[in-house]
Amino acid sequence: MMLSRLKRDLTMAEAARAPGGARVDLALVADMVPPGSKVLDIGAGDGELLRILGEQRGVDGRGIEISREGVNECVAKGLAVIQGDADTDLADYPNDAFDFVILSQTLQATHRPREVVEQMLRIGQKAIVSFPNFGHWRVRTLLGLTGRMPVLSLAESEA
User: Fold this and answer.
1) Segment among 38-42, 88-92, 152-156 with least mean pLDDT
2) In angstroms, rounded to a whole number, what is the distance separating the alpha carbons of residues 10 and 16?
3) pLDDT tens string 13-71
4) Taking the CA atoms of the chain, what radius of gyration do you get in angstroms?
5) d(C-alpha 98, C-alpha 8), whole Å
6) Among the ranges given (3-12, 42-51, 89-98), the one the predictor scored with the smallest mean pLDDT
7) Which residues are bridge partners to 81 per DSSP?
8) Quick check: 37 and 100 in contact, CB under 8 A?
9) Distance between CA 64 and CA 8 in Å, rounded?
10) Which of 11, 73, 110, 111 has the fewest Cβ atoms within 10 angstroms?
11) In DSSP terms, which residues pair with 63 in a beta bridge?
12) C-alpha angle with apex 127: 125 to 129, nearest 5 degrees?
């Protein structure tokens, strides 16, 4: 029971929320992007960051997401997101195609993080990278109990 609760607490669905309901980490990232910028969101997930950027910053936003479910959710919201893998598909983008390339809470899921960041810097004038706090006591406790790093997924938040 305790292990199940710890996993639930670690999911992004449980992330800190601002008064308006947006995840605090996404609000902070959005504040870094000037209005009207051209943005690529790598690992777009459910499209929440792209939605915030479009509504609050008036950006021209695009996304790439590995899961079909995430892409479908984004497209249903009217967001320009394609299915793709950050480890392999960023090479298809031209140099300096975006003002900002954002990798939010996704770096730890890549197989070749250095290459992904190099591609981000090639295709965007600026890059923003955020990642979960794996030093948090809950994450470290789960690591100690299971011997494995926790997997942050929406499926676990429903468990």
Assistant:
1) 152-156
2) 11
3) 445 655 666 678 898 999 999 999 999 999 999 999 999 999 999 999 999 999 999 99
4) 16
5) 35
6) 3-12
7) 63
8) yes
9) 26
10) 111
11) 41, 81
12) 180
